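Page 42, continued from yesterday. The earlier attempt failed because a stray header line got pasted into the input along with the sequence. Redoing it now with the clean sequence only.
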Amino acid sequence: MQKLVISTFLLTLFCFSAQAQNGSSFGIKGGLNYNANGDYFESIGENARHPDRNVGYHIGVFGKIGNQLYFRPELMYTSTKSDYDSDEFTMKKIDAPLLVGVKVIGPLSVFAGPSFQYILDTEFDGINIDNVEDEFSVGLNFGIGLNLNKVGIDLRYERGFSENEGTFIGNNLGAGVVSRIDTRPDQLILSLSISL
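This time it went through. C-alpha cells are written below.
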C-alpha cells in the first residue's frame, strides 16, 4: 500500500510539473460524499427527513494532464458515515482515483477510472472494527464534470469491485452476537475543485 501511495504522490507531482502543457493543471478539491445502503431512492427519501444521515466529506489534491482527452490522478482523505438500523458506521480512508476523461461540449466532460482505497479506521457506534477483511480495495469511479476557468464541479458515482466485510462482536443481552458490515464504497460524490 505504501508503494501505491508513494507512486500516486509522485505521479501527482509529475502532473504539477507538467502544468505548462495546454489544459494541464493541478489543484485542491473537496466536497460531500453520500453513502447509500440498499436502494438509492429509498435511501434518498429517508435522508430528506434526516439530512445529516449518510453524508461524509473528502479533501485532497489533483493533477490533470491533457486538454480534450486528459488523465486526472487524485489523492484524497475521505470520511464516510452510514446508518444501519439507527446505528452509525464511520470509515476514514485514503482514496486514489486514476481517471481518464474527455471533453464532450465546451466546459462539459465525462470521466471514468479505477479508484484505489486504503482504509485507515472504521467504527460502529463506538466499537472500533479491527478485522476488516481487506484494508486495501479497488473500485470504479465515473461521472460528469463542468470546468469554468480555474473552478470545476463534478458529480460521480463510486462502487467497490469486491465484497469487503468488517466483523465485530456485539453485546446483546449478555450474549455475544457476531455482526458483519459491508465496507466497500457505494456512494455519490459531489466535488468542488480549484486549479492553482
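Notes: The chain is about 15% helix and 65% strand.
Reminder to self: strip header lines before submitting.
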